[in-house]
Amino acid sequence: MEALLLNTLPIVGVIVGAFLQFHFSKNKDNRQLKRALETQAYTDYLRAVAGLSMSHRFNDEEKKREYLSVLTEAKIKISIYGSKEVIESLADFEREGANFNTDKQKTLFIKIGQAMRSTNINSTEKVLDKNFGQLFFSIDLE
Questions:
Q1: 132 touches 118 (CB < 8 A)
Q2: Based on CB atoms within 10 Å of each CB, which residue in 102, 103, 108, 137 is the most buried?
Q3: CB 70 within 8 Å of CB 44
Q4: How far is Cα 69 from Cα 72, in angstroms, rounded to an integer?
Q5: 105 within 8 A of 93, measured Cβ to Cβ
Q6: CA dihedral in degrees (88, 38, 76, 102; nearest 10)?
Q7: How many CB atoms lie under 10 A from the CB of residue 124?
């Protein structure tokens, strides 16, 4: 009995170790994939907003349709992969008309950028809203 236990215990240990390693690496891979999909959705959204803004400025109807399609797809991806904070920020921006005509709308858009950044970087380091304002709108917003 003792010999059987001494012979099977190392094999059981190897099997359990292999299972745990597989399980933890699979979870890590899933988290990395989710992070990549989330980042891509956020990037697509910001790219679509910028493209839509430029197509409005130059009155390019074909590009407007193209970027509206990209924007819709990005919103769908964000609704699946995005964080609660980003989804809530997007919803607030949409409720205000999803435009950049007022300071409130611009501030809400900056809030989206802040949420995307904090979710993706997992950092307590916060960028000032006025710096986001400069990046997005070339103005300081407080």
A1: no
A2: 108
A3: yes
A4: 5
A5: yes
A6: 40
A7: 6
How far is it, in rounded angstroms, from Cα 6 to Cα 99? 71
What per-residue confidence (pLDDT) applies to 86?
A: 96
Could you identify the residue written with the tokens 């959204």?
45
* Tokens linked to 114: 């802040």
Question: Look-up: residue for tokens 């307590």?
Answer: 124
Answer with the residue of higher pLDDT: 141 or 96: 96
From the number of C-beta atoms within 10 Å of its C-beta (0-12, 13-18, 19+), residue 116 rates as buried
Amino acid making up residue 29? D
Q: How many CA atoms lie within 13 A of 63 on its CB side?
A: 14
Residue 64 predicted with pLDDT over 80: yes
**Residue in the block written with tokens 């904070």:** 85
Residues 6+ apart with CB under 8 A from 126: 114, 118
Is the pLDDT at 118 greater than 70, yes or no?
A: yes
**Pairwise CA distance, residues 46 & 94, whole Å:** 14
pLDDT at 27 over 80: no
82 neighbors 42 (Cβ within 8 angstroms): yes
